Amino acid sequence: MFKNLYISFVFLATFLSFSQVEEVEPDDMVKTITFKSNTNQSELPILSLNERLYLEFDVLNANEDDFYYVIEHYNYDWTKSNLMKSEYIKGLDNLRIVNYENSFNTYQIYSNYRLQIPNTQTRLKVSGNYLIKIFDEDDELVFSRKFMVYENLTTVGLQIKRSRDVAHVNTKQSVDFVINTTNFRFNNPKQTVNTVILQNNNLKTAISGLKPQYVLGNELIYRYTTESSFWGGNEYLYFETKDVRGTNLGVQFTDLEDLYHSYLYLDSNRYNRGYTYNPDINGNFQITILDRDNPSIEADYTVVHFSLLNPELSNESIYVYGSYNNYALNDSNKMVFNPDSGAYEIDMKLKQGFYNYKYVVVNDKHELEEGLISGNYYETENNYKVLVYYKDLGARYDRIVGFGEGTSTQISN
Fold first, then answer.
1. Which of 63, 45, 65, 64 is nearest to 55 (CA)?
2. pTM
3. Which residues, at least 6 apart from 207, have a Cβ–Cβ distance to it below 8 Å?
4. Span 44-100, pLDDT tens digits
5. Which residues on neighbouring strands pair with residue 125, listed in sequence order?
6. Which of the 8 DSSP states describes residue 334?
7. Whole-Å CA distances, 175 to 167, 197, 232, 294, 370
8. For the chain, which end, N or C, has fewer CB atoms within 10 Å of the first or last residue's CB respectively?
């Protein structure tokens, strides 16, 4: 069951890669993996030890299959930590997910599974990097997802600035930050402290490995010229399918076959069109429906048709991605050029909701170029998060002792 697993291909062009374990993507029978902590939108969960983690996913049948969850602890660099299971979990894992319901009054039959941690049998005891794995009844891995748990022991202040590199002053954003250690003392911080910077909750473009440039009293200061810079990108495109029988935001028209089909407006290349403010939710998605009470089981699936007006590329591939598919790059979101329409096209089966998406290119060197179609602009509103990892001398695992967040809405020079 679910034997065809998609392994997420990580294409990093200008960023430092720190991931040793890769997330596993599910096959086409598992859809709408909603993973979050304290937000309504599905995004990378970064939560404190006293907050709740929510995982939800659909299986497109009514077999009510059994699924089990396993939680593993990892170091800062995503290598397996030396902790035993009992040292980071209070209770047990490898338990069956008992909360599930079948869809109600939908064209697409599915079963919706929900997991909350902590629960009566599983509670996390320490901070750090975690991976949750979902197995089926045949003990085959269906998919896995990363998340982070932090302790509020330090404060992290962020400032988003235009790139100090003159060549990229109009296309990149630089993240300066200060770690305040008034209530927590670091031993030898240049050796024991590591940081990770995230743009729009995307682990696959994270910057890691930066060490403090200055240690002034109780502050660790990071003000790099180029090492902490991200491409500005552009605002995400979006559409909404909360009413499958009518057109919504971004939807040109709908049609009913075996399922409802939602045809989005034709998108075009935005690379040289200049920046235009267009509010988004930074790549996330949220399941929503109209005139129904429970989106988890009453939202239907629609076949969403994407089309991008762009000349055919010879050695590059174009993908549609966002948080809805965990920023994966595989055959399920790879577009195909249609010579009749002169556009790249793809259709996907997606649950009713509000979605952000972006067109990206993977070049002939297998490098991700996020801005080749959307463009890169320093004015773009992006969300940034900084995680502070600490492994004291002689310690057996990396703690996350600080977390900070900021946006580029008030970017400065």
1. 45
2. 0.91
3. 15, 16, 175, 196, 197, 227, 228, 230
4. 999 999 899 999 999 999 899 999 999 999 999 999 999 999 999 999 999 999 999
5. none
6. B
7. 17, 8, 11, 40, 19
8. C
